[in-house]
């Protein structure tokens, strides 16, 4: 039996007793021969998939699959069967169904085979994609609530190319491959989830996924996605954090080029423009344009570049409504936004310039001119009623905070208590604001500044919005040593978590309490009267940390 079933090589028979002398079992020898042969077979299968005429090579592989599939559940043969299926562009339907019905086989098969299963089984594909989408959203939220507060490293710091290297984007790109049907399914999932949750991070993923396929030069998908060139151009703007004139013309060309009967593409374009990274770039460019216009004595309505930025902001901000209503029309721009609101913002810039010049002039008897403290009622009304005005207004406030312009910040802060759809209490704005406030760290020692910021703004929403509670605690964890002790004590009481507070708030509050405990001088140090011979014990001051 051994002779009949062994390896039929005449020269081998005389060599085998050597193995016996070394105490090597025949099983080990046969196993190593088997493994070697399997490796050779796998290499051969991969080679067949690349040689000869297309029909012939696939015919060979199909025959091989037919012969070997019955052994697919044998662990030693399974890799060969899986390899054959991987190289077949179309695995027979019957075999796919058998693989799909067996959990272990499904798990073991290559992604190339899974794609063929998924494209006709949306529910199964959804089950595979869903955990990845949840992970993606969680990653974004973790960055927004990160305890590292910095003006240099924030949510928008990573370049688009770096973001696309993220685990979720890479996995999704691999799952889709060159399969247009799967790509469409993922886009449909993202649209549905965006509609259901209004979470704008799904819009980011929509753009990142397309650009990840673009990086791999997968033309099968890029050429059929009508948003490809628009997204590619916008991606370059996001990288520079500015929309220059040349790219502005290109983007305008894409928007103007939407033909009659193809309006549905506006739904996808609006989703790409609703990506927070796109909104950030458009809003920063708008603020920069407004400053330039002040220097040029030009009104907003006379700047085509500015009007295009507003048009894109408007399209991005209207994404949810457009996809929800299925009415694919560019939202109408409110004239007053251009004729009243933007000139008002420019007047704030002028106020700053005038004040700075006044400070430098030799003071006369009448004394220094105070900084304007009132804000026009119309400004507050715009922030409450107009989404785009609100977005630009918030970015202007971020801009003055970054410039360490305390006067302008305190002047405009009251307008943030009530804004359109509570945008001033959104995570992205608060994440950026807390980062920029670190530049005004020394102002936290002043009672007036803290009262305006905490009592006048943050604490108005803490009880009803847990995310605001978290952002205030993040800020205090970073700047508590700058805040006056009396104020810090009252803030600690005001920010104490309630029974309804989530774990994240409780955890942050505990961290803050621990830090404050460490800073308190020990009772012994405070009460003991030091004797004259000993050096005075040092009591740490609030500013020493």
Automatic annotation (TrEMBL):
Q: Which GO terms describe its biological process?
A: negative regulation of transcription elongation by RNA polymerase II
Give the record's keywords alphabetically. Answer: Elongation factor, Protein biosynthesis
Domain of life, per lineage: Eukaryota
- Write one Gene Ontology MF term: translation elongation factor activity
Task: Give the start-end ranges of region Disordered.
Answer: 519-545
Annotated signal sequence range: none
GO CC terms of this entry: NELF complex
Instruction: Identify this protein by name.
Output: Negative elongation factor B
């Amino acid at each position: 039996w051994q002779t009949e079933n062994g390896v039929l090589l005449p020269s081998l028979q005389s060599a085998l007793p050597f193995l016996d002398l070394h105490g090597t079992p025949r099983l080990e020898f046969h196993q190593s021969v088997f493994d070697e042969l399997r490796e050779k077979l796998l290499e051969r299968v991969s080679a067949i998939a690349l040689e000869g005429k297309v029909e012939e090579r696939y015919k060979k592989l199909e025959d091989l699959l037919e012969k070997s599939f019955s052994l697919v559940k044998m662990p030693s043969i399974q890799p060969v069967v899986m390899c054959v299926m991987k190289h077949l562009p179309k695995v027979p339907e019957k075999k796919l169904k058998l693989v799909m019905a067996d959990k272990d086989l499904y798990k073991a098969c290559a992604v190339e085979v899974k794609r063929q299963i998924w494209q006709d089984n949306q529910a199964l594909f959804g089950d595979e994609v869903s955990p990845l989408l949840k992970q993606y959203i969680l990653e974004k939220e973790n960055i927004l609530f990160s305890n590292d507060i910095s003006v240099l490293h924030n949510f928008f710091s990573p370049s688009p190319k770096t973001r696309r290297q993220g685990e979720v984007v890479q996995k999704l790109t691999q799952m889709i491959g060159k399969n247009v049907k799967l790509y469409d399914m993922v886009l449909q999932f993202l649209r549905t989830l965006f509609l259901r949750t209004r979470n704008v991070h799904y819009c980011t993923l929509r753009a990142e996924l397309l650009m990840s396929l673009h990086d791999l030069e997968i033309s099968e998908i890029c050429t059929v996605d009508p948003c490809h060139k628009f997204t590619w151009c916008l991606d370059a703007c996001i990288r520079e954090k500015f929309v220059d004139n040349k790219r502005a013309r290109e983007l305008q060309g894409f928007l103007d080029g939407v033909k009659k009967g193809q309006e549905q593409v506006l739904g996808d374009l609006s989703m790409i423009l609703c990506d927070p990274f796109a909104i950030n770039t458009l809003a920063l460019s708008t603020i920069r344009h407004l400053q330039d216009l002040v220097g040029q004595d030009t009104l907003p309505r006379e700047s085509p570049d500015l009007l295009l930025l507003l048009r894109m902001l408007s399209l991005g901000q209207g994404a949810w409504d457009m996809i929800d209503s299925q009415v694919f029309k560019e939202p109408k721009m409110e004239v007053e936004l251009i004729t009243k609101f933007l000139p008002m913002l420019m007047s704030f810039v002028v106020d700053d310039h005038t004040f700075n010049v006044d400070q430098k002039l030799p003071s006369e008897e009448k004394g220094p001119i105070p900084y304007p403290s009132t804000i026009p009622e119309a400004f507050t009304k715009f922030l409450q009623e107009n989404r785009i005005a609100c977005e630009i207004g918030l970015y202007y406030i971020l801009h003055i905070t970054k410039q360490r312009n305390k006067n302008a910040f305190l002047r405009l802060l009251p307008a943030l208590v009530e804004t359109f759809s509570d945008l001033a209490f959104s995570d992205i704005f608060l994440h950026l604001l807390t980062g920029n406030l670190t530049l005004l760290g020394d102002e936290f020692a002043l009672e007036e500044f803290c009262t305006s910021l905490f009592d006048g703004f943050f604490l108005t929403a803490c009880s009803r919005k847990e995310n605001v509670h978290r952002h205030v605690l993040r800020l205090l964890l970073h700047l508590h040593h700058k805040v006056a002790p009396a104020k810090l004590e009252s803030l600690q009481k005001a920010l104490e978590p309630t029974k309804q507070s989530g774990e994240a708030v409780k955890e942050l509050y505990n961290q803050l309490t621990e830090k404050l405990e460490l800073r308190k001088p020990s009772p012994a140090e405070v009460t003991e009267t030091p004797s004259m011979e000993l050096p005075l014990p040092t009591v740490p001051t609030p500013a020493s940390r």
